[in-house]
Design goal:
Elements lengths: L1 H16 L15 E8 L2 E7 L3 E5 L2 E5 L12 E3 L5 E5 L2 E5 L5 E3 L8 E8 L2 E7 L5 E6 L4 E7 L5 E4 L4 E7 L2 E7 L5 E8 L4 E9 L2 E8 L4 E7 L2 E8 L2 E6 L5 E5 L2 E4 L6 E2 L6 E7 L2 E6 L2 E6 L2 E8 L3 E2 L8 H20 L13 H8 L31 H22 L1
Parallel strand pairs: 4-29
Antiparallel strand pairs: 1-2, 2-3, 3-4, 5-6, 6-7, 7-8, 9-10, 10-11, 11-12, 13-14, 14-15, 15-16, 17-18, 18-19, 19-20, 21-22, 22-23, 23-24, 25-26, 26-27, 27-28
Helix pairs in contact: 1-4, 2-3, 2-4, 3-4
């Protein structure tokens, strides 16, 4: 078949002409924990990853693959206070129950690209683009959604606090902000001229103070706020996480991945060796993201671990609809490869699911039909170790899986 030949040629050419290293990644950025989506008795129970989610059960942490909601990119996710997890996909809202089963939100009006999700004690809110192009703020409940704010203005991001919802957008070199109450009523609005070269804005919240992070054309970030029609610049760095305010009122920020106190909006670096990639507060849980996972955040700094990437196990395929099982398995194998490339060794996989079976499925070989299968051979130009070594086939296998997944996506698009 033509597509098999094309995939095989592409894999062979890529493997044998590029310098494939053990530190290469099958998908792109290294695996990261991005935020806590849900908690249970003060502990993280669902975590958002840079590809998919992690869900904790009595058997440990299991992977929820993006195939369940039809996306293969970072998407917003949060949960209703005391309710299910809600995922904001490019096609609308999805709901994940306690068993990890993912379905579309039951309200037919929950379609449309979701830009952001945020939760507070007052509820769960979403910023989405409706079918008519209007930007709307939704109150999301388990069975229905309610549009509380709708406008023709293009809003780029949203942050949710206990007292208000903050919307921000960039237009003609100026940052615009608008604050809503939980009913969607406008409490405050303002704008300010930004430094030249500003290309995007993001909403941040620390306690009752709203901030804006500005991305410049030089890829430098700048933290500030709008005050009486003027832009007040506070910090500049290549990466900015936070600021966030913890339960006792203390504030933290991370500049270029280094943790610092941020009381009175002054950065005071702490002697913390961990690289910090996020600082957040979700209801009653204060935490930080690091290269290894998530840590609790307290006044003294980082505390115990809440989630570790090395604890992540393969998905529970019994909870995955049959039509998505192959894509889900491919996504997990690719993410597993990225984990190992980053030096993170996940738990041993179920011996009943083999790498060979996944690769065969990716290139269309039917084991039950008795078709001949490609054989693994040592001594070729793609060898990374001696015959029989797992490392020998790690990256060729990753390329096969990536090629197979790309073909599956193209086929799905043709069918649509």
């Amino acid at each position: 078949m033509e597509w098999v030949t094309r995939i095989g040629c592409a894999v062979a050419f890529t493997c044998c002409t590029l310098a494939v290293r053990e530190t290469a990644l099958a998908h792109g950025d290294p695996p990261q924990a991005l935020s806590v989506v849900a908690t249970d008795r003060g502990e993280a129970s669902v975590v958002r990853l840079n590809e998919g989610l992690a869900r904790r059960s009595s058997q440990g942490w299991h992977y929820l693959c993006p195939a369940l909601w039809g996306d293969d990119a970072v998407v917003p996710a949060d949960s209703l206070p005391g309710g299910p997890v809600v995922i904001g996909a490019s096609s609308g809202l999805f709901v994940a129950d306690d068993s990890g089963t993912v379905t579309r939100h039951p309200d037919p009006a929950a379609e449309g690209r979701v830009i952001a999700l945020g939760a507070a004690a007052s509820g769960l809110f979403a910023l989405r683009v409706a079918a008519d192009g209007r930007h709307q703020v939704l109150r999301v409940e388990a069975e229905r959604i309610e549009t509380i704010f709708s406008t023709a203005d293009v809003w780029g991001d949203m942050a949710v606090g206990e007292d208000f919802i903050e919307l921000v957008r960039l237009q003609a070199g100026r940052v615009h902000e608008q604050r809503l109450n939980a009913a969607g009523e406008v409490l405050q609005q303002g704008d300010a001229e930004l430094p030249p070269g500003s290309s995007a804005v993001f909403a941040r919240m620390a306690g009752d103070q709203a901030y804006v992070v500005v991305l410049s054309s030089s890829a430098l970030l700048e933290l500030g706020r709008v005050e009486q029609g003027a832009w007040v610049s506070l910090q500049k760095a290549i990466t900015i996480s936070g600021p966030t305010q913890i339960a006792d009122g203390g504030r933290f920020i991370a500049l270029d991945n280094a943790l610092a106190r941020f009381d009175e909006e002054r950065a005071l670096p702490l002697e913390e060796p961990a690289r910090i990639t996020c600082l957040r507060r979700r209801l009653d849980l204060d935490y930080a993201c690091s290269d290894d996972g998530l840590r609790r955040l307290q006044r003294e700094g980082l505390a115990e671990s809440l989630f570790e990437l090395q604890a992540l196990q393969e998905p529970d395929l019994e909870a995955v609809p049959e039509a998505e099982r192959l894509s889900c398995e491919l996504q997990w194998r690719r993410y597993e490869i990225d984990l190992r490339a980053a030096g993170i060794e996940p738990p041993a996989i179920d011996a009943g699911v083999t790498d060979a079976s996944v690769a065969d499925a990716a290139i269309g070989v039917d084991r039950d039909a008795g078709e001949d299968r490609p054989r693994r051979r040592g001594g070729g130009g793609c060898d990374l170790a001696g015959p029989g070594s797992r490392a020998q086939w790690r990256w060729p296998r990753g390329l096969v899986l990536a090629a197979g997944l790309a073909w599956l996506r193209r086929r799905a698009r043709r069918r649509r």
